[in-house]
Design a protein that fits this description.
alpha+beta, HATPase_dom, five-stranded mixed β-sheet, single chain, 3 domains, phosphoprotein, 10 helices
């Protein structure tokens, strides 16, 4: 509770009210002492008037009058004469004299504090002006024990009253602060927490409604900030999707253009003058297109379209993949082989399956040629009761550690220097789109084996 704004406000209110009461306490206790002493003087004057009215009062009655007045003796001064009116035995010498006829406020406060802090009983002389101008002055003596006890009792009552007032005041302020300030602050905090969970949802943007000016200004600023952030997130998402789509298209388009570039290399050997004249321009255009595709591979991600499922012959599709790869192999010592039953047909999106196998075979071919050694790439397939299983195996050097660490994560490290890492990510997403799984079963110095499992589902 004491860490909350309202809890600390409650504590500070109690402290400040008690501090204010402390400033009031000392003048109050000084005023109480002055009234106490003046009351004793007035009682002493009344007792002396009774004696002046009847000079024949016995000693017991005088003692009773002094006891009721709370003094030891009474001296009246009329005209120039000073007269001891009432007296009784003094229990000790007079320690101090106080003149109440024209006291200063500071003097009264100091005297009151000193008396309150000093527990030693003393006899004091008090001088004051008689009421109703009944003489020049009245003088009496009294002990300080009763005075101090009365001051302590009064001080405790003042303290209790101050504490009661401070608690009531603090409680009311506590409730008021919680209702009119803390509640609105909590509303702003709750909105911020809700907005943080889904900042792209425009419905979560705060709607200013606070009545406190400062909080309303904070809500206005927060609304503006949230609106800008939501718009920025939406724009970023659209740009990411667009960039991802361009990257994916560029990746596959680059591969297609590379194959076309190989065809143009052969066209350049034609004897036809027109072909020989146009071939360099065609080669230049395709080269620039490949370069442009490669430069776009630094952009984000996008979801692949839903596969269009049809039945197709897998062996024929693999032959198409091999035909394109053989053009890229050229004179390199890389052999391609397939172990697929001629009658094996499967249900899927043939274009997407073609892209899956093209990426895997191309990665294998690039790994083998990059090692400077010869090798073999084999694609085999089989079916069981629930799945079609396609395996792409090569005898290359295996995937580098970084590629294995960030397997299937785009832009995190390719299998070869300069690679974008998009190929395996695209394959994994295409396989997931078919409800299947892509696994790396083996990758070491003897080669790499990828396994694709595509579920048959309801045929």
């Amino acid at each position: 509770m004491f860490r909350t704004l309202s809890g600390r406000f409650l504590i500070l209110t109690v402290l400040f009210v008690m501090l204010a009461e402390a400033f009031i306490f000392f003048p109050s206790i000084a005023r109480f002492r002055l009234d106490y002493l003046n009351d004793r003087l007035e009682r002493a004057q009344i007792a002396s008037l009774a004696l002046l009215a009847d000079d024949m009062l016995d000693s017991d009655l005088e003692e009773e009058l002094l006891l009721n007045a709370g003094v030891f003796n009474v001296v009246l001064r009329r005209d120039a004469a000073r007269q001891l009116v009432l007296s009784s035995p003094m229990p000790g010498p007079i320690a101090e004299t106080f003149d109440l006829r024209d006291p200063g406020a500071l003097v009264l406060i100091v005297d009151a504090v000193e008396r309150l802090l000093d527990p030693t009983p003393e006899i004091i002389r008090v001088i004051g002006a008689p009421s109703r101008d009944a003489g020049l002055l009245i003088e009496t003596t009294m002990d300080t024990q009763r005075l101090r006890e009365a001051m302590i009792d009064y001080g405790l009552r003042i303290l209790a009253l101050s504490l009661f007032i401070s608690v009531i005041t603090a409680g009311l302020l506590f409730l008021a602060v919680r209702q009119f300030l803390v509640k609105q602050i909590k509303s702003v905090v709750s909105n911020m927490q809700a907005y943080a969970k889904a900042p792209e949802d425009a419905r979560r943007i705060i709607q200013p409604k606070a009545r406190v000016t400062e909080i309303r200004e904070a809500e206005d600023a927060l609304q503006s900030l949230q609106s800008q952030l939501t718009q920025s997130l939406k724009q970023k998402e659209r740009l990411a999707q667009l960039g991802g789509a361009v990257a994916r298209v560029s990746h596959d388009l680059r591969n297609i253009l590379t194959s076309a570039q190989l065809f143009t290399d052969r066209i350049e050997g034609s004897e036809d003058p027109l072909v020989r004249r146009m071939a360099p321009k065609l080669v230049g255009s395709i080269t620039r297109a490949v370069s442009l595709c490669e430069s776009t591979l630094a952009f984000g991600r996008a979801e692949e379209p839903t596969p269009m499922l049809t039945r197709f012959n897998l062996a024929e599709l693999v032959d198409d993949v091999f035909e394109a790869e053989r053009l890229a192999i050229g004179e390199d010592d890389v052999s391609l082989s397939a172990d697929i039953p001629a009658s094996l047909t499967m249900r899927g999106d043939p274009e997407q399956v073609h892209r899956m196998l093209s990426n895997l075979v191309r990665n294998a071919r690039q790994a083998i040629t990059g090692s400077g050694q010869g090798g073999e790439i084999n694609v085999r397939a089989r079916s069981n009761d629930t799945d079609w299983v396609i395996e792409v195996c090569d005898t290359g050097p295996g995937l580098p550690p970084k590629a294995r660490e960030f397997l299937f994560q785009p832009f995190q490290g390719g299998a070869r220097k300069g690679g974008s890492g998009l190929g395996l990510a695209i394959v994994a997403e295409l396989v997931r789109g078919h409800g299947g799984e892509l696994d790396l079963k083996r990758s070491d110095a003897t080669g790499t084996l990828f396994v694709i499992r595509l579920p048959m589902g309801d045929l």
